From TrEMBL:
Residues covered by the CCHC-type domain: 253-266
Highest taxon listed in the record's lineage: Eukaryota
Occurrences of domain SCAN box (ranges): 130-208
Protein name: CCHC-type domain-containing protein
Keywords assigned: Coiled coil, Metal-binding, Zinc, Zinc-finger
Coiled-coil segments on the chain, per record: 4-40
Matching Pfam families: SCAN (PF02023)
Amino acid sequence: MREQRNLEIEAEKVKQEVQLKRLQLEAQKTAAENRSFSDNAIETICKPAFPKLPVFNESQDSIDAYLLRFERLVTSAKWCKDVWAISLASLLKGKALETYQHLSPAETKDYDEVKDVLLKCFQCTLEGYRLKFRNCKFLKNETASQFGNRLKNFVTRWISLAGCEETYEDLLDLMLTEQFISACDKSLVLFVKEHDVKTFEQVVKLADMYMEAHGSQIRGKVCESRKVHVKENHASLELESKENDARPGSRVCYVCGRSNHTAKDCFHRYGAKKKDREPELAKAAVAAKEKLIVVEGSVEGKNVNVLRDQGCTNVIVRSSLVQSWSNVLQLGE
């Protein structure tokens, strides 16, 4: 009886040892599989099947095109998105790298956050793409098709960031909003942008609120057109001439830059010698002790006092005594 009991105990020990050995083998197998998967993942990340991207050069590369190429590469290589941000950081330099370094440790791990900051840094925003589209010009050695593709890319990104559909109504709303804002002053533009409105009707409504609150009209970029007035008589021409002469900076020579004469009277214009370029100054004086010759006369039937001067070459009449300059001109002729 005792021997049978010992045999049962011995058999139970052997059974437990076999079970323990089986568990150890299963654990080793699982660890080996995990190690193999980790090695394959590291090899996939560190050794992609695509060529390595060149470092971003802000003077030659466009940040949005560079990021698009980077995303296509890592997507095709099936990289884990958790390593996109750190992989992109190794390709940055200059202004882009400085912007990346200003991010917090948590933000540097988020690729979408890094991408958004870089796009804003290089003005790849709604307003930035709008300005790029409006100010786009041919680059050196650029073909017409390449220039057209750049224009198309700018306007497509502008429309996309504006959040509008590619329909006639939405595009019309976008154009109206842009034109309206471009005609307003800076204070109103700032007021509209602070409220982040999306439609043209909302922009107009905010502008009305702004005008009502400030109690004034919109002070926009007014285009002052030049008006040509036809004078009816000689007196109005004389008045206009006096107003122009009184305007500051109106009598400036465009040849030598001086303000005591105009270009038509400039000595530099005719190649005069240096000593002849200075205008001659003349002085005149009236002896107060001598009695001036004053006689009686008439102007258009009105009795006046006339100062006789034998050296005078022009006749000067008080303007209040002349009703119509046309008569005077006819008499002078």
